[in-house]
Each structure stands twice: as C-alpha cells, then as structure tokens.
Amino acid sequence: MTQFLSANDAPDINALINSAKAFKADPFGQQPGRQKMVINLFFNSSLRTRMSTEKAARQLGADVITYDASGGWGIEFADGSVMNGNTAEHVREAAGVLSQYCDVLCVRSFPSLEDRAADYEDRVMKSFVKYATVPVVSLESATRHPLQSLTDCLTIAEHRTVARPKVVLTWAPHPRRLPQCVSNSFAEWMRAWGEVDLIVANPPGFNLAPAFAPKNIVTHDQRAAFAGADFIYAKNWSAYDEYGATTTNFGDWMIDEEKMTLTNNAYFMHCLPVRRNVVVSDGVLDGDRSLVLQQANNRTWAAQAVLASLL
Amino acid sequence: MTQFLSANDAPDINALINSAKAFKADPFGQQPGRQKMVINLFFNSSLRTRMSTEKAARQLGADVITYDASGGWGIEFADGSVMNGNTAEHVREAAGVLSQYCDVLCVRSFPSLEDRAADYEDRVMKSFVKYATVPVVSLESATRHPLQSLTDCLTIAEHRTVARPKVVLTWAPHPRRLPQCVSNSFAEWMRAWGEVDLIVANPPGFNLAPAFAPKNIVTHDQRAAFAGADFIYAKNWSAYDEYGATTTNFGDWMIDEEKMTLTNNAYFMHCLPVRRNVVVSDGVLDGDRSLVLQQANNRTWAAQAVLASLL
Amino acid sequence: MTQFLSANDAPDINALINSAKAFKADPFGQQPGRQKMVINLFFNSSLRTRMSTEKAARQLGADVITYDASGGWGIEFADGSVMNGNTAEHVREAAGVLSQYCDVLCVRSFPSLEDRAADYEDRVMKSFVKYATVPVVSLESATRHPLQSLTDCLTIAEHRTVARPKVVLTWAPHPRRLPQCVSNSFAEWMRAWGEVDLIVANPPGFNLAPAFAPKNIVTHDQRAAFAGADFIYAKNWSAYDEYGATTTNFGDWMIDEEKMTLTNNAYFMHCLPVRRNVVVSDGVLDGDRSLVLQQANNRTWAAQAVLASLL
What positions does the domain Aspartate/ornithine carbamoyltransferase Asp/Orn-binding occupy (chains A, B, C) (predicted)? Predict the structure, then answer.
C-alpha cells in the first residue's frame, strides 16, 4: 500500500482487518514507527480521528505532530496563479515541506457542500497527494472517510454471525447539513469488501452519488430495508442531486426500538457524534445491540493497521 | 485511589505528599505509564496545569494527548433530550469514547459564576466521571482545584518549621470576577490534611461556601488573621452568597511588606497567575519568603504522584 | 553556547554547520535530550519553525510541549506596574514558571511594525531571557530569525562550489507588510560567518537597519547585484527608515528566469512561504537551481545542532 485514500488503495481488505485485529490483541506488538514521524494536518477540527490516529502512531513507536490549520492557512491550489491575494503558500511548497518533516502525511479536508464538481474533485487531498513525497493518508476528505470505513469493516467482521450479513446503510434525520463522506465510503467499502449484502435506504432526493450507491441497492422504504437486516448503519447526509440540500422534515426516518424489531436482531452502528432522539432513540443507542463505542474503539486499530502498512 | 476530584479521594494526604517528594528527587524513578495514555481535556485554557500534567505523565513513561475544547464542543448533559439544537454529542458518548483512547482521563471545566446551584452540582466533571470507564482526574472543576491544593500541601510540608503552622487563606483584590475553586479546595485540603491551623480572611459578603470554610474559621479582619501566621496564601474569589458578585472597592486587602511584618516571618503563597501591585506588592512577591515559583514547580510532582497512583 | 538569539551567540558558526550536517547524516546519533523537556512558546503561529523544532527535539530524545499563545496571553512587561488592566501575568512569573517545566525554552515573538524603537528593543524576547533560568532559543523575534539564518549558512555550505561565493540578498515584491527579521538575520549571519561576499539589493527607501546591512554592501540596482552571483536569496521586507511602510508599486523586482541568467548559474533561496509569480516566477521556483525545499529540510538539522548544544 502506498497511500490510503479510498477502498481502491486497499488491495486486500481482509488482510487489513486481520492486521487491525492483531494490533487490538497486542497494541505494541510491532514497532515499525521507531524513529519515524507522522504528521496529522487538519483543515477542520476532529476528536475521534485525531486521537485514534495519534494513539495508533504512538503505539507503532512513531512520533506525531498534529497541526490544526482550521484557523486558516491560505493554501493556493491553482497552477500558474499570481499569488497577490489571500493565499500565502502554494500546495507544492506546503506538501513538499511537510513531506520532509515526516514519513507519513495524514490530511483531513472537507467539502464546501456548495459546488459539487469542486467537492468531488477532492482537490485538497489530491493536491497533497500529487506534491507529497511520502505516503498520504486521508483522515476524511471532501468525499470519503476511508479510515472510518475500514473500522466499520472490522466491527462488522467481529460481530457477524452469518457468513454474509445483510447490512443497511440508512439515512437519518439531523438538523445540520452534513457531508456525504462517511456514507460514500461506507458504501464503497462494503461493496469492495464483498462479504455483505448492502442496501442503502434514504428519502427521495437523498440518493448518494451513483458511483458509490448504484440505483439497484437504493430504496426509499426504510422499513422494508430493515426486514431481516443484521446490521443497521445510520448516518445523515445532505443531498447529492440538489447538492448540499437538506430537510427539516424528518418524516419517520429516526431509528427507534420499534423499527429495530423489524430486523434480524440487528446491531446498530453509527460513526459518532450522534444526535440522540433525532438520529436514533436513546433506547437503541443504549441497548445491548449498539456498537457505537466499539466502533470508536476500533478506529485506533484500523488506523494502526494502515499506518503500519505505510511506515 | 480510583479518581481524583476532591480531598475525599485522597485517603492519605501524607502518602501523596511523600510520593510527590520522591518524584521530585527522582523524576523518572517509576515508569507506571509505559504503554499507557493520558488524555487531558480542557474546556477552558490552561498553562501551568497543562504543562505540569503533561510533564508528569511523560516522566511516568506515558503518552499524552491534550485536547483543547475551549473553542466549543457542544456536549449535551441532559438525559432524554432531543438533540435538535446546538449540542452535537452527549456526554455518554464523549466520556465513553475518550475512555477507550486512554488509561486516565483528566478534565478541566469551569463555573458559569451565574447559577450557583448549577455550578455547585459540578455537572461537567460529575458527568464525565459517571460515564467514563477509566479514572478521572480533575484539572479544576466548577468548584475545586485539587491538584493545586495537593501542591500547596507539598509546598507547606517542605517549608514548615513548626509541626502545626498557622496558615491564612486571605482574599485579595482583583479586577476580574474569579471562581472559588482554588480557595474552596485549599480550605478543604488544609482541613482534611489536619496538620495546620487554618484561618480564612475575607471582606464581609465574600465568605466561601460553609461546606469549605465553616464560620468558625472565617474572619473579616485581615490584620488580626496575619498575626503570628507562618504561611499567607492569597487569592481572589467572587462571592458565594451573592453568587458571582465582585467588587472594585478593594479596601486595604492587598498584601504588602508592612502587612507581612505582622506575621511570624510568613511565607507568601499564590497559585499564579498573579496581578502585581493589585493582589500583592512587588516587594512581597519578589522577596525571599515568596514561594510562588516553588508552588508552580511543585505542580509537576503533585500531578506525578496522582497519576502514578491511578496508572 | 548558553542561548541562541543572534549570531553573537554562535562562537563558531562552522562548528554549528558541521554539527547540523552530522545530524542530517545520522538524526538519532546523539541523544542529549533524554529525560529532558523543550518548551516551544509561540506568540504568533508557525508551521516550519514549529515542526522542525519539535522534530529536532524529539530526535535528540527530548520531550516537547508546544504552547500556542497567539490567542492571547496578557503578559505584563513593565516593572512596577499596577496590573489592574488587561495583563494577567508578569513576564517574571511567566518566564520563571516555564523555566521550571523545561530545560530549553524556545520563544517566538513578532514586531508591531508600528513602533520601531519598541520593536528593535525586542522586549518580549529580552524579557524572557532576563527572567528565564534555562537557555532561551529564539524561534524568531521582533528583529531576528537566527534558526533560519543558521539553516541558510548550512544550505550555502552544502551547495557552494567556490570557496567564497557571491551572495545576493534581494528585496522582492509582496502584497503584505512583512517584518525585517529574516533579512536582518541573514545579513548578520552571512557577515559573521565571513565566508561569502554579501550584497543587499533593495529599492530606495527599503534599506535594512545599518547595523545589519551597512551602506557599503547595499545597492538599489538589482540587475547589477545579480551579475556573477552564486546565490540569490529573495525576501520581502517592509521599510526600516519610514518604519513599517511598504509599497504596492513592485517595479521590476520580481525574480524571474531572465534575471537569473545574469548570475553565475546561481542557486535560488527563499525561507518560505513564498508568493508565486509575485516574489519569484514559477520557472525559477520549480527550476533545478531552486533550493527552497532543501532549506526547509535543513531547518530540522540546524535546530537539532542548536538544541544539542544547549541541552
């Protein structure tokens, strides 16, 4: 593996899952990070991703520098521009310099939710990849969140009781306009992994980009989707079609105990943070089939597997 | 010890003092933090507490992640709430997730100084304790600052020349409205320690909560309190009775050289930062009986004793 | 060496260069930082300086705490002041406390560009030096940037092909008002090093302070200065005479390929970040004589040489 941006960079997802499991069993068992440096560069703030990645790096023996650029670091991305305005440094220099200070460069960027073409170009991440001379790891980009998805594969692998579980990715209400990254990646990884049957349930108008969720796996009938499901993965996302649109008309999309009875005693998953009694009821979240804390824990081991492979 | 929130959590204060002294003599003498993680979570900013706690953890061999949430991390504390507003994550998840990333969770919160009942419930700290699955250390809460107070016990233990020194906690002028935490804890710890005679001197209207400073140890006569004192501990605090009130009529409460002549050649103590020539005169602060830098130094060893006990 | 604030603190620049080269060849070859702490205190934000200094310290085996005080830490610098206003802590306590938490204290401050006398007093840096009880390293002050300059000596030493190269420090256009620190220090260090012939080229009205660039090495004719040059070091700075003044009339001062043909196939240097096609053309910056990334890389080794000498 030479970078970690999408499921395409993971030639063998089961090998990554197994590596993550090995680190979970023995966190300090391998030290490929000795005398190496990991830089985490955040263009927007982060709790789980930052902590789990720092912990993962340190458990591998590496040093970590986390740099919060959310306050503004005016990076220029256009080639040939006359930088006489608000941008102070070109990504060529930014990526080139950071590459010299580290062995793996982890970057988090985010979408505008205004300009779909620009967001789906994923320019920040791709520019860093282009000009970095060390492996780049996405800590979430404008369109994907691969470390979350690898974590989700691991969590499902640990809890499945049938060889091929039915997994439902369901849209859920949320008062804010959220990116599509987690959902895109979840669909991408479930399909790339190939060991689950994935259904995506969302209201009309909220289909994910077809490249991530082709029409044949999308339904607008949440209750039908839940029937016989082994895993319910809830997440809000804003619209891809009418890009960035959201709704305050939540309808009947919140996940509650009654709906969970439609499933095959499914586990409940969410990447956190989660709005209680908006996305999901207290009863489901606090019930014994909720895996949200296990997911957060698994972030560390997934990150460790990825970093170990790149260091 | 399973948590460190108040003097009640310290079954043997002298044992903690002795542990701190041992670390001061040999900072790297014990390494119970090896392959362990300490998380410092700050809901308001900090200099001394942050640095001394980080240093203490690292000297024990632990890794540290310091997370500054002062910019806002909308945590919901109410049970059963419909999180359709400004809070993005419930403390159940926040504490549950952080617990999985560390072995000791250190939290700093702060009072509103508006709603006494709410502040004295110490909801932030208590909620983290309730939902964390690892030991919690208070880096100052809405009502207490136990690491400062253990430090103060250590500093007094190092400098006392009589078995039972007279210690005066005195209110001092300050242009801002300050919490009662340091003063509450100082009184609590001096009394729990039981090896000093404590007097609290403050203007009328500025009595601390009776639970921390019962009436029989409170005086409004600062000069009388100073008579024969071995240690003068100065601190401003806002009112408990008319909750959060302060005054710009400082009267004669500043500590200066003349007042210090009333004492038994007392040491001067303050937790810093200190407003010169408002709280205390330059002459006292720069004099050879001032212990303020020794106190700041002792923060490291007190934190190391506490973390060592919990790791 | 007992501090690192200017070229005056470096008794033997070649020894520092050689130490930096040794660390570049073997980053973990010496571990004088074991069980020691370096504190980096930033009064304004930093990318390269922060990362290279952290990396340098860690490669020496030291722990590092980086404290960002750019959000405001109201430090009082005046002696005898009645601190009844906006300043919360006197530099005596600030420096005294930090000294107890570390073995080397690194400080970055910055100029106002409003009051020349105040800026050139370098009060923040000098006050920390005065009250610190550990060695102080300047991570850039109001007037100097010595770690950058030592880096520049190293980079020139690595690339010179003649014993005594001709080095041109040239003013270049920039839309913002910038400090004189990098330029002052570059001139100071080149002269103190004594192994290059230095010319400073700048527009009329933009002479550096005579103490850094005496008249006999200053020219207003950039093209004449470039003739036969071995190294072109570009940097914008605001005026020293009409203090802080800048210009948007950039004239013909941008460095481009045509101008570089006037030189002896000179290397191009800049401390970064750099405004492309304002300070320098893409062609020069991306050309094979550009050393800007090597300079950024050398920051680590220069810092490591300095810290190793002080730890």
Answer: 217-309
Residues within 8 A of C (CB atoms), B 149-208 only: 175
Interchain pair B54, C65: CB under 8 A: yes
- The β-bridge relationship of strands B37-42 and B63-68 is parallel
In 3D space, the residue among B90, B81, B133, B83 whose CA is nearest the CA of residue A294 turns out to be: B133
> How confident is the prediction for chain A on average, in pLDDT?
96
C61, closest residue in chain A (CA to CA): A35
Question: By C-alpha distance, which of C142, C88, C93 is closest to C114?
Answer: C142
For residue C69, name the pLDDT band (cuts at 50, 70, 90).
confident
Instruction: Return the half-sphere exposure (C-beta side, CA atoms, 13 A cut-off) of residue B127.
Output: 20
Q: What is the pLDDT of residues B76-88, one digit of tens each?
A: 999 999 999 999 9
Question: Most distant CA pair in chain B: distance in Å?
Answer: 61
CA B202 distance to own-chain centroid: 19
What are A168's strand-pairing partners?
Answer: A199, A232
Judging by DSSP bridges, how do beta strands C136-138 and C104-108 pair with one another?
A: parallel
Lookup result for tokens 């948590």: B3
> How far apart are alpha carbons A172 and C252 in whole angstroms?
59
Nearest to C135 by CA among C303, C47, C5: C5
Report the residue of chain A nearest B62, measured CA to CA.
A58
Predicted TM-score of the model (pTM): 0.96
Q: Which of B34, B54, B84, B133 to mutate to test the interface with A (most CBs of A within 10 A)?
A: B84
Is the CB of residue B292 less than 8 Å from the CB of residue B48? no
- Kindly report the nearest CA distance between residue B100 and chain A, in angstroms: 6
> Pick from B291, B197, B76, C306: which is nearest to A276 by CA?
B76
> Distance between CA atoms of C201 and A203, rounded to whole angstroms?
66
Binding residues of C for carbamoyl phosphate: 46-49, 73, 108, 145-148, 271-272, 299
In sign, the C-alpha dihedral spanning A31, A32, A35, A38 is: negative
Sequence-separated (6 or more) residues with CB below 8 Å from residue B18: none
Q: Are strands C104-108 and C89-90 parallel, antiparallel or unpaired?
A: unpaired
**Chain C: nearest CA to B58, how far in angstroms?**
8
- In eight-state DSSP terms, residue A176 is S
Instruction: Please give the Cα distance from C302 to C154 (Å, whole number).
Output: 8
User: Is residue C189 within 8 Å of residue C178, measured between CB atoms?
Assistant: no
**CA neighbor of B96 nearest in space, from A291, A236, A26, A55:** A291
Is the backbone peptide bond immediately before A273 cis, with ω within 30 degrees of 0?
A: yes
Distance from the C22 Cα atom to the nearest Cα atom in chain B, whole angstroms: 28
Residue A192's pLDDT is what?
98
Nearest residue on chain A to B102, alpha-carbon basis: A55
Complex ipTM: 0.95
Tokens of A240: 């891809």
Residue carrying structure tokens 């809000």 = A236
Tens of pLDDT, residue by residue over B148-206, are 999 999 999 999 999 999 999 999 999 999 999 999 999 999 999 999 999 999 999 99
Place of tokens 């304004």: C44
**Taking the alpha carbons of A29, A32, A34, A40 in that order, is the dihedral positive or negative?**
negative
What span, in angstroms and rounded, lies between the C-alpha atoms of A63 and A1?
Answer: 21
